[in-house]
Design a protein that fits this description.
The protein has 5 helices and 5 strands, in the order E-H-H-E-H-E-H-E-E-H. With 146 residues, the chain is α/β, with parallel strands linked by helices. The structure holds 1,3,4-trihydroxy-5-OXO-cyclohexanecarboxylic acid.
């Protein structure tokens, strides 16, 4: 039996606080609820999920490398604030074979100017944003179709 292909779903800083963090922007859905919904959606596509969160930039870099070593089907990443600052994450996205899909709960384009730049977006094949949890589910559908 071949192993099902795996989607890495990586979450950056402060996303562990979803549910109580600025609910007027991010809603009240917790990261655990997002994880459960993502697992369900991925399983509909016959895909396994490696769902993680960290507050540390270098850990996200390591996990992108790990997705490459594991021959993941794709990486779905909400890099949170590192979206707007991290050349290291962009370089990692470009260095790996699995396609990278960017996701956001909010739409950074409609927020402060400093959120309008996305470094990771330069290395991503698609971006789903502004829909809350459904942004993640749309990204999984897109990953499954790759
Ligand atoms: C975010 C948007 C980012 O600008 C912000 O720094 C986050 C969350 C989102 O999912 O809407 O932490 O990535």
């Amino acid at each position: 039996q071949p192993m099902p292909s795996t989607l890495f779903i990586l979450n950056g800083p402060n996303l562990n606080l979803l549910g109580t963090r600025e609910p007027e922007i991010y809603g009240t859905t917790t990261l655990a609820e997002i994880e459960a919904a993502c697992a369900g959606k991925a399983h509909e596509h016959g895909l396994a999920v490696e769902f993680r969160q960290t507050n540390h930039e270098g850990t996200l870099v390591d996990w992108l490398h790990e997705a490459h070593a594991a021959d993941a089907k794709a990486v779905i990443i909400n890099a949170a604030a590192y979206t707007h600052t991290s050349v290291a994450l962009l370089d990692a996205a470009k260095a790996i074979t699995p396609p990278v899909i960017e996701v956001h709960l909010s739409d950074p384009q409609t927020r402060e100017d400093f959120r309008h730049v996305s470094y990771i977006g330069e290395g991503a094949v698609a971006c789903f944003k502004g829909k809350g949890l459904p942004s993640y589910l749309d990204a999984i559908d897109a990953a499954a179709a790759l």
